């Protein structure tokens, strides 16, 4: 069975000012799967995500989403194609309520009554805290609840690709388990997911495929199961064993 890639980066270089951050990144994200992007701090993972989203532009190489070349597109155009991005800082509007944060992301709705009720119910099932704190200021939520809101906001409209930067960072184990369940459900619903993650347990439990970055390039890619089973490879690429 051949796997179709929904997202492909080929020879991508990214410069930020005088700094050359990405050095020819080749990355494939298979359609319908969850791909883990791993690597030590400073390996270029976040820059890769920001380059995909057009927040920084590749100085060389190409980024393709399906049959569309998105390399030179601007972020709003890329989002319109069905790609959602949850950055590491989550981008929550603290002074707005949970409901207002969700409404801002639901571009088709002018008010809360126009939001897709069935979709909201599905999101509440994934993240009960979003429903529980619906009318509370988002700034008052815990770190885990904010992360749930950030992901909920990204999927309030149907998306083909969900890109999330370190979803488990700073979260308690119980919340991490909740996140793992939610991402599993999202994958079952047909969403393709690309996750940057430092929590190896999280990566092992969720990943179908894995790409490991070092010094601005992908140095290993393959199945997560094979990577999980090879302690010597983990040690050499990440400096630790799963």
Can you tell me about this structure?
Keywords: Amino-acid transport, ATP-binding, Cell membrane, Membrane, Nucleotide-binding, Transport. One of its GO terms (molecular function) is ATP binding. Residues 7-240 form the ABC transporter domain. The protein is an alpha/beta fold. It has a domain at 89-158. The protein has helices spanning 45-52, 75-80, 98-105, 117-126, 128-132, 143-154, 173-188, 200-206, 224-229, 231-238; strands at residues 5-16, 19-30, 34-39, 58-65, 68-69, 83-86, 161-165, 192-196, 209-214, 217-223. The strands form 2 sheets. It has a 6-stranded mixed sheet, sandwiched between helices. A 4-stranded antiparallel sheet has the order 2-1-4-5, covered by helices on one side. Helix 3 packs parallel to helix 6 (143-154). The longest helix is centred in the C-terminal third of the chain and has 16 residues, at 173-188. The protein is globular and about 50 Å long.
Which structural class best describes the helix and strand composition?
Answer: alpha/beta
Q: Give the integer mean of the pLDDT values.
A: 92
Radius of gyration: 18 Å
Largest sheet: 6 strands, mixed
Task: Tell me the number of strands.
Answer: 10
Distance between the termini: 29 Å
SSE order in H/E notation?
EEEHEEHEHHHHEHEHEEHH
Helix fraction?
25-40%
Give the strand line-up of the largest sheet. Answer: 6-7-8-3-9-10
What global shape is seen? Answer: globular
Low-confidence stretches: none
Number of helices: 10
Q: Please indicate the percent range of residues in DSSP E strands (runs of 2 or more).
A: 25-35%
């Amino acid at each position: 069975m051949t796997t179709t890639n929904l997202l492909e980066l080929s020879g991508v270089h990214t410069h930020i000012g005088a700094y050359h951050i990405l050095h020819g990144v080749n990355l494939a994200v298979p359609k319908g799967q969850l791909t883990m992007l791993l690597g030590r701090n400073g390996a270029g993972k976040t820059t890769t995500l920001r380059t995909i989203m057009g927040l920084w532009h590749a100085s060389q190489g190409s980024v393709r989403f399906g049959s569309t070349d998105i390399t030179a597109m601007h972020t709003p155009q890329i989002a319109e194609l069905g790609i959602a991005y949850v950055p590491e800082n989550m981008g929550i509007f603290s002074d707005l309520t949970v409901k207002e944060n969700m409404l801002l992301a639901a571009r088709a709705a002018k008010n809360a009554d126009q939001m897709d009720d069935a979709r909201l119910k599905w999101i509440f099932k994934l993240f009960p805290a979003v429903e529980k704190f619906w009318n509370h200021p988002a700034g008052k939520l815990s770190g885990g609840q904010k992360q749930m809101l950030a992901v909920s906001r990204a999927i309030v409209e149907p998306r083909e690709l969900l890109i999330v930067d370190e979803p488990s960072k700073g979260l308690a184990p119980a919340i991490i388990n909740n996140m793992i369940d939610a991402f599993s459900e999202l994958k079952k619903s047909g969403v393709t997911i690309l996750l940057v993650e430092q929590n190896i347990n999280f990566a092992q439990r969720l990943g179908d495929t894995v790409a490991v970055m070092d010094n601005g390039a992908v140095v290993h890619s393959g199945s997560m199961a094979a990577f999980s089973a090879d302690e010597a490879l983990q040690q050499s690429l990440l400096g630790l064993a799963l």
